[in-house]
Structure formats: C-alpha cells, structure tokens
Structure to design on (257 residues):
C-alpha cells in the first residue's frame, strides 16, 4: 500500500478542495475493504448523503472524514437529526478517519469505525447556529470517538505503519455480533467493553468492571440494577467469544489469534 498522494488537478485552487481530491483518490486506489478484504473501493457520486465509498464485493458503505490534525475525543459531523436517524438505519455507513501530512504529502493514519459501534449515546447534539448565521437555527452534532471501545477503532495505518490485512479483517470479524443486537442493547455492550478497556490489562475480575458502576448509573439513571446489567453484558461478550470466563469472577480478553 502506497501512502503517498497523487497531485490534485490544477483547476482546484482551494486547499480544502485539493485535500479532498488527494484523500479520495488515495482511498480509491490504495485502501482495502476491512470487511471482506477486497483491494479496491468504489466512489459514490458527489453530494450523496452520508456515504462516500462502497465495496462492490460485500456492499459495505463508508463515510470518509480527513484532516491534518490528530483525531481527538470528538469528530465533527453533520446534522444532528440526520445522524440520529442513520444510527438505526441498516445502510448506516462505516466511518473512515484519515489523517494526512502535507510535508510528506501522504497518509499518516487511517482508522475505521465499524457501523455496529454507532449507538445514540455516541452522538452529541451541538448548540443551534445563532440567528445571525446563514443557516440560523441549524443543529449539528459531534461523534464522541472517546465513547467508542478500542475494538471499534481499527487502525489500517498507524503512524505511517501499515497494519497486516489479516489482523484488520480478524479484528473486524471479532465484533460483528454487535450487528445482531438492538440499538439499546448495543449501547450497554459498548459501555461495558469500554469499562473493560479502562482496566488496562487483558486479564481482569468482576470487581474491576464494577468500578464503572457510578459512570453507568449516570448514563442510565432509570436502571436500578446496574451490577446485574454489567454481569449480563459480560455473559453476552463471553457467549460471542469476545472475552473468556476463567471462573471465580475472573475474565480475560480474547486475542485476535
């Protein structure tokens, strides 16, 4: 995979237009589909809502967001209402986050967030635009990348280093069970997965997961049985091979191997 860009056509003078052309050309020519491994993406027609690319082999759709800075805990997206509706739609696209560097004229990082990691809890409503704005009252949103478990942020390129295709495909397959869950159930599973991430090591115990109880109570104030809900989610994760139950309240994250 070549990480360098091709030069944009001369008639594009805006830096943002050139960056869009560079990154889109690179995705089409260099990136493989993390769902099935096909070595080429197809581009949707311009101005199509939501998705930018699709894989002709498995029909997965992808939305591209690119920038020069590192992606932080929040990613600016479009209209709040539209994205909330997309989260529960079957054709909600996967998200490609591409970071580029103009000095080296190429790609430094590419992260894919599979669509099964999208739940209402990761969509943050922004304040409406002021009455003096051209689109007065318009309400945008942020994607709360920091609320997504680490398993849902799959690196295809990291600090200019390519991830092995086999590892990417296996990491993707490891969480496909989330597509079979309801939107509400997926939110709970993701929060417990994030709680396990926060422990910081592959082997952990139930009490370490319970440390997230107060945070989960704040997120789900109507639920009066948070510890029982945590145990339920751990069982679902175990049944789907994401974690392993070792006995006596001990668990371990399963590797991609």
């Amino acid at each position: 995979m070549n990480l360098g860009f091709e030069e944009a056509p001369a008639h594009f003078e805006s830096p943002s237009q050139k960056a869009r052309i560079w990154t889109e050309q690179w995705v089409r020519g260099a990136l493989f589909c993390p769902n099935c491994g096909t070595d080429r993406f197809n581009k949707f027609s311009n101005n199509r809502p939501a998705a930018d690319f699709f894989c002709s082999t498995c029909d997965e759709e992808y939305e591209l967001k690119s920038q020069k800075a590192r992606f932080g805990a929040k990613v600016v997206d479009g209209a709040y209402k539209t994205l909330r509706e997309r989260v529960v739609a079957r054709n909600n696209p996967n998200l490609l986050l591409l970071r580029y560097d103009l000095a080296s004229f190429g790609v430094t990082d590419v992260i894919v967030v599979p669509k099964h990691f999208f739940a209402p809890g990761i969509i943050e409503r922004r304040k409406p635009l002021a009455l003096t704005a051209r689109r007065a009252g318009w309400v945008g949103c942020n994607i709360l990348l920091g609320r997504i478990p680490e398993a849902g942020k799959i690196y295809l390129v990291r600090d200019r280093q390519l991830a092995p295709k086999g590892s990417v495909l296996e990491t993707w397959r490891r969480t496909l069970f989330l597509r079979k869950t309801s939107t509400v159930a997926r939110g709970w599973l993701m929060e417990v997965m994030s709680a396990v991430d926060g422990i910081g090591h592959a082997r952990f115990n139930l009490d370490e997961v319970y440390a997230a109880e107060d945070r989960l109570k704040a997120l789900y104030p109507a639920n009066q049985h948070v510890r029982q809900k945590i145990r339920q989610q751990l069982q679902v994760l175990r049944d789907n091979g994401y974690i392993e139950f070792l006995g006596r309240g001990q668990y371990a994250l399963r590797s991609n191997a």
